[in-house]
Amino acid sequence: MEQQVRPDPITEAALRSLKDIAVPQPVSWMPQTWGWLALALVLLAAILAWAMVLYRRWRRNAYRREALRLLDGIAGDFRNQQTRAGATARLGELLKQTALAAWPRETISAMSGNDWVEFLNSHQDGEIGSSLKSYLDDLEYRGDASASTDATDDLLLDARHWIERHHVSA
Q1: Which helix (H) or strand (E) holds 29?
Q2: 102 in a structural domain
Q3: Maximum CA extent, the chain
Q4: Contacts of 75 (CB under 8 A, 6+ apart)
Q5: By the 8 A CB rule, do 146 and 153 touch?
Q6: Looking at the domain assignment, is residue 55 inside a domain?
Q7: Are 150 and 123 spatial neighbours (Cβ–Cβ below 8 Å)?
Q8: pLDDT given at position 46
Q9: What average pLDDT score do residues 101-112 get?
Q10: Range of the domain at 94
Q11: What are phi and psi of 98, to 5 degrees?
Q12: Type and span of the H or E element at 4
C-alpha cells in the first residue's frame, strides 16, 4: 500500500482559508430598454393582424372550397353514362349557386343566356373557356349525354377555373 503524503500544516491552513469563486448572476434575456419591448409588441400586433387577414380570407372563400368539392362529385357523374344527363344540369346549378354565394341575389337570380355568360366573363381573368361558353349557351338546356370525354374534361376544367379564380368586387 502506498502511503499518502500529507501536506505541511501551513499549506493545510491556507487551503482551509480559501473561499469559493464568486460566480456572477446569469445574464438576463429580457431587453434592458423599453424600445425593444415596444418593437416586440408592434411585431406581435402585425403578426396577429396578418393572421386575422388570412383567417378572414379563408372563411370568405369557404363557398369556393364547397363548390370545388361538389364539382368533383359532378365530375364523377359525368364519367358515369347513367348519371351524365343529371350531371349536365347540376353543373349549371353549381355555377349559379357559387355566384349566389358571392354576389347579391337580386343581381344573379335574374341573369340567364348571354347576360349570364357575360357576367361570368367579366368576373374572371380573361375570358371563360370556349367549352364552358358553349355549355352555357346551349348544352346546359339540351341535357346532351353524347358529349365526348375530352369535351367533358375541358368543360369541367373551365368550370373549376372560374370557381377558383373569379373576382368578387368589394
Answers
A1: none
A2: yes
A3: 115
A4: 156
A5: no
A6: no
A7: no
A8: 98
A9: 85
A10: 61-165
A11: -65, -45
A12: none
What is this structure's pTM?
0.68
Joined grid coordinates for residue 133 = 361558353
Nearest to 114 by CA among 97, 104, 128: 128
Interior angle at CA 104, CA 100 and CA 109, nearest 5: 60
**Does residue 6 fall inside a structural domain?**
no
145 falls within a domain:
yes
Amino acid 1 reads M
What's the CA dihedral at 27, 33, 39, 44 to 10 degrees?
A: 60
C-alpha cell of residue 62: 369557404
Q: Residue 98 pLDDT > 60, yes or no?
A: yes
State the pLDDT at residue 67.
94
pLDDT, tens digit, 9 for 90 and up, residues 20-74: 888 899 888 877 788 988 999 999 999 999 999 999 999 999 999 999 999 999 9
Residue 10 C-alpha cell reads as 501551513
Q: How many residues does the chain have?
A: 170
Domain count, the chain: 1
